[in-house]
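User: Hi! I'm working on a homework problem where we have to compare a predicted structure to a textbook description. Could you give me the structure for the chain below?
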Amino acid sequence: MRIFIQNVDTFLGRTLVKILRKRDEGGNHRVFGTISGKRGTVPPEVKRTVCRDDAKKEAKMRETIQGCGLVVIDLENSTADDIHFVLSSLNIDWKSDPPKTTGVLENEVICILISSVMVWAGTKTQDAGGMLKASDYVSRVPRPGSMYQQWKDLEDLFLKCLNAEDTKVKAYVVAGGVLYGKGESTFARLFEDSWRGQKGLAILGSGANRIPTVHVQDLAKVVRHIGFAGEGVSPATNPYFLAVDLTPAPTQVEILQAIVNELCEQYPMATLPLPDEPQDELQEALSLNLMMEPTITSVNPDFSADAWCATGMIANMQKVAGEFCEAKQLRAMKVLVSGPPACGKTTLAAAIAEHFNIPPLELSSRTLGEMATELGAKECRYRGYVLDAGVAGYKEMEELYTTLEPVQEDDEPQDPQENEGEEKEQKMCRVICKDICPDFVIVLQAERELCEYRWKARGSPQDQFEKHMKKYEDNNLQEDLNNITDFFQNEAQVGVLNLPVIRKEEDDIFESTRIYMEKAGRPFNYLPTEAEVAASLLERKTQQEEADHDEAIAEARRQEDDGKERSREAARHVERLRIISEYEAAHRKLQELPLREYLMQYMVPNLSEGLIEVCKVLPDDPIDYLAVYLENSAAQVGSQRSGPKNN
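Assistant: Happy to help. Predicted structure tokens:
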């Protein structure tokens, strides 16, 4: 059979391709379809894609649809124009009232429109149990003002146009529950926040509202059953299908709590008022309150045997969470870092935890039993961990990562009289706990002198260094004893990266570690993309260059200021030398004068004037008066000599 699927590259489209392509009797059907995105996202099982980019391609697409025995359209990823084009391709004049055929198809066609239970969001139930059935579709009511009002109109037009007696088309509408599984669509944000350990999930309203759900693979299987059932399904009796889980719809609280319980540690969720106008697809889904009976069980009672999640979303949460991690390329990165004290283990572990978005743990602060319990917690199971192993050695790793299990002995015939009356001792052996064992082991290598220097630089007591270093040497550096590297290489079969740290910067050590951890491919894990990493590195480089430039300018200014100050100090020193030189020159000049000439030039005039002044004044103590006069005269002469120079 030839099958046409509208938008084969979407979340639902990829699943439809895989489920519908296989033939019951063996072999494969031929699948054609359109795409909503780039060509690279097309599933490899699709034989050819078509489009309506121009008149020639549109005619080819119309021909492809007419040549297919099964046509599947997903309303979620289609427009009203897409629906109208499919109707016209099936020779239906959808504009006429009532619609009429415009030609005869060569082959019979089954056409299935996949819709959503959101079209029923405002429907009031008729029976006391509040259960809605597919037969109630004529009274279905969307939420007022939502886009699902247009969906309802398109559903009605679809059934009205394609189930006429004079056409070879059988048309069905399949209203799917809120989709989950295979990487999620609507619930993706809930799984993402829980996987990342963000405690932000909140309950809308009371949380007791019922949300009909369906695994995306089970929805595709319902479509397959309708498309390949032949006479067992007829639009005359079942034109409308409700594709929901076979179990009763879970409440909003049950869904949120199941996701949290599976992916992270429990926490009390906040309660928010139920929004009058939901802001997005998730809020619309969480606001639903519908109880629905699956239609498939009425036409195929054995469907549960083939259902992927026959017991519903809550009971299969571990499987659903695994599918989410696989589809989103989320990988638990379990890492162990070892090495001597002060070699840089803690710094490297912190860098790994930040880069790979995984929780950092430290062995030294916990007992081995507590550590094993924590390594088995949900957060570590899904996201991984980076464990600073401290100074632990082979013995600690064996106790932490292995468990004792009985040995399975071969059943050999034994003499019934041998060891009669003695209880046979059960042999035990150690088995690696693969669920918690690290996938990556990094052992930092550093000389004792370097570690001691770093320890002192931190200001930690020397006696503590000696204690930790001795324990590390006893555990890992004894020639006659197995060490931590021996355990992982020989027992756990995990490759070990022995990384010397001498003459290496922290960034270089981390880069070597990152390359080692990404040797099998880089996990998605909501890490920055390569473009974002490159942009971040470029930004850091630019910031460093700007900082270096600013520092260079500041240093130049400091040097300029220092130069000016040195110039001023040099000028002051020159002035001091000049004054000293003048004083020394004057002093030498005075020393060179004869005594008589010196007295006649410097002493006799002042003394004569003083004596004249004494004669004029006639003081009571002429000698004291003369002495004071001579002192004042000397000071006046000194100020006259130094005054102009200071100015």
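For your comparison, note the following. The chain has a mean pLDDT of 89. The domain at 333-406+428-527 is CATH 3.40.50.300 (Rossmann fold). Good luck with the assignment!
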